[in-house]
Design goal:
The protein is an alpha/beta fold. It has 15 helices and ten strands. The strands form two sheets. It has a six-stranded mixed sheet with strand order 1-2-10-7-8-9, sandwiched between helices. It has a four-stranded parallel sheet with strand order 5-4-3-6, sandwiched between helices.
Length: 318
């Protein structure tokens, strides 16, 4: 199994730079004071399609050779990867076939359609999604771009950490959310390649803690009925992402639903930026473990800002 290296991520960054936003790194004196450490927020909520996923999707599309590119790309996703791949394909003049479950939120269906993708709806099961993808691949010759179990996707996701460390060197710790592990794999590979002394921590909801279980046991443990407000972190690790995380990540911390909501609200209130619950897990780790982070310089990857404004969790939180 080939694992990505820092040079792979650096090459990916050169490849995708003309297409992506170089997102800002924001700081907050108020939050620094509250948590008694220096926080550096890499704001992928300002990335195209509102999430880091555009980095990986773009790198994967650009890495396909010319002949195969003519037949387009395909994936199954109901979230940010679907929109990211649809836009990356459109910007490169190729077709994107997106398999989405019938139960996907209307706002996400409209977003993917708006980027020009050809959508196939299926039953909301993994089997139905994979079967639909296989049918399209066989009929159209399209290349499958998995949301995270893909070498080039992982390299693209790692470019967020590359920019963070170019802008702010000397960080003690970097925290990134963990779902399928693509962002965590790219982040940890990049950071450890630049400075092996940086502590790399994954943030995961307690209610969807398959990566924590896998990391602690050393055995890949699939998710079982996860239920969390951080809907971007419901997926399980793959063999590839688990191998990278075992090699490069120092620890994975789980956080409660209450802490995710409180951290999300704190960032909205104090930093005046919109983030989704999955992004809030990184601050929730610090909120739940303040002593560990006191006095440290900490980079936090805010993974995205795609949240349904009609269903905000704050009204039920005091």
């Amino acid at each position: 199994m080939d694992l990505p290296t820092l040079s792979d991520i650096q090459s990916a960054h050169k490849r995708i730079s003309p297409f992506i936003h170089r997102t800002p790194v924001l700081t907050s004196q108020q939050l620094n004071s509250i948590f008694k450490c220096e926080l550096f927020f890499k704001c992928e909520n300002f990335q195209k399609v509102g999430a880091f996923k555009f980095r990986g999707a773009t790198n994967a599309v650009l890495s396909i050779d010319g002949e195969r590119k003519k037949n387009g790309v395909v994936t199954h996703s109901s979230g940010n990867h679907a929109a990211a791949l649809a836009l990356a394909a459109r910007m490169n003049g190729i077709k994107a076939f997106i398999v989405m479950p019938e139960t996907a939120p209307e706002v996400k269906k409209k977003a993917v359609a708006g980027y020009g993708a050809l959508i196939t709806y299926c039953k909301p099961t993994l089997q139905a999604r994979e079967e639909s993808c296989s049918e399209i691949m066989e009929k159209e010759g399209a290349t499958l771009i998995h949301p995270y179990d893909n070498f080039n996707v992982i390299c693209g996701q790692g470019t967020a950490a590359l920019e963070l460390l170019e802008d702010f060197s000397g960080l003690d710790t970097i925290i990134a959310p963990v779902g399928g592990g693509g962002l965590m794999s790219g982040t940890s590979t990049c950071a450890k390649g630049i400075d092996g002394k940086i502590t790399i921590i994954g943030a995961e909801p307690l209610n969807a803690n398959d990566a924590w279980k896998s990391f602690k046991s050393g055995q890949l443990t699939p998710s079982a009925n996860p239920s969390t407000i951080a809907d971007g972190l419901l997926t399980s690790l793959s063999e590839l992402t688990f191998a990278i995380i075992r090699k490069n990540v120092d620890d994975i911390y789980t956080v409660t639903e209450e802490s995710i909501i409180a951290s999300m609200m704190l960032i909205w209130e104090r930093m005046k930026i919109i983030i989704e619950p999955s992004s809030a897990t990184v601050l929730a780790v610090i909120r739940e473990n303040p002593g560990f982070f006191e006095g440290r310089r900490v980079g936090l990857i805010l993974s995205g800002g795609n949240v349904d404004l009609r269903k905000l969790p704050f009204s039920s939180f005091s």
